[in-house]
Design brief:
The complex is a heterodimer of chains A (81) and B (151). Chain A has three helices and five strands. Chain A has one domain: Ubiquitin-like (UB roll), CATH 3.10.20. The relative contact order of chain A is 0.28. Chain A is globular and about 30 Å long. Chain A has 81 residues and is α+β, with helices and mostly antiparallel strands. Chain B is built from four helices and eight strands. The chains are: A alpha+beta (81), B alpha+beta (151). The interface between A and B is medium-sized, with 17 and 27 residues. Chain A: One of its GO terms (biological process) is Mo-molybdopterin cofactor biosynthetic process. Chain A: Belongs to the MoaD family.
């Protein structure tokens, strides 16, 4: 699946998106896999309360299932308007 | 009133507020109330060099459409317009506008207020301010999240 990062999550991880091969069943499991990769991921995902997630471009919870999902995005709370 | 005409625009370029306001709901003789709101880049501390607005292409348009559709289920609206810019902006530039048209003013005002509350916290935009002392992401405010509970 494609994993996208926005705003300071993108800056901390150092890239806007990447292809991730994963067997994670939920967003939370995907986060655990990413955290275990490198410090920059661990830093970006250190406080899930400060993060929001979208699954296939819809806002979702961290326990959302990933079966059949093409795109997951992580970002801070939105500040539009 | 049938389904409203909804127009969503996400673009980097400036928009012509006067032309948009003129064109909005033009010729709709059944709509007696038009409300417009415009958001402008604010330089709160007097040292803003520029603001950068990042967004999530694809999701942004869908989220704005969903918010406008939700407004249309709650109020009887004839037309809805949302324009939101991204990219680099200077203090004083217009970031976005919403417009609502309804038979009566209460629905138009309330729907515009609702649209603003939701697009602040539920549309995937992020603001970064570049100032004399460096750059920083604008933090979401608790009040913005609390504002959603009014509706």
């Amino acid at each position: 699946m494609e994993v996208l990062y926005f705003a300071w999550v993108r800056e901390r991880i150092g890239l806007p998106k990447e292809r991730v091969e994963t067997g994670a069943a939920t967003v939370a499991e995907l986060v655990e896999e990413l955290r275990a990769r490198e410090d920059r991921y661990a830093m970006a995902f250190s406080d899930l309360g400060a993060l929001r997630v979208a699954v296939d471009q819809e806002l979702a919870d961290f326990d959302a299932p990933l079966d059949g999902v093409r795109e997951v995005a992580f970002f801070p709370p939105m500040t539009g308007g | 009133m049938g389904a409203p005409r909804i127009r969503i625009v996400v673009q980097q370029a400036p928009f012509d507020f006067g032309a948009e306001a003129d064109r909005f709901a033009a010729g709709r003789t059944d709509l007696g109330a038009v409300v417009t709101f415009t958001g402008v880049v604010r330089d709160a501390d007097g040292d803003l060099q520029r603001m950068e607005i990042e967004h999530y292409p694809g999701m942004t348009e869908k989220a704005l459409e969903a918010i406008a559709q939700e407004a249309a289920t709650r109020w009887s609206l004839g037309e809805v317009l949302v324009i939101h810019r991204h990219g680099p902006l200077q203090a004083g530039e217009r970031i976005m506008m919403v417009a609502t048209a309804a038979r009566h003013r209460k629905a138009a005002f309330e729907a515009a207020d609702f649209l603003m509350d939701y697009l602040k916290s539920r549309a995937p935009f992020w603001k970064k301010e570049h100032g004399a002392d460096g750059a920083g992401w604008v933090a979401a405010r608790d009040e913005d999240e609390a504002a959603l509970r009014r509706w």
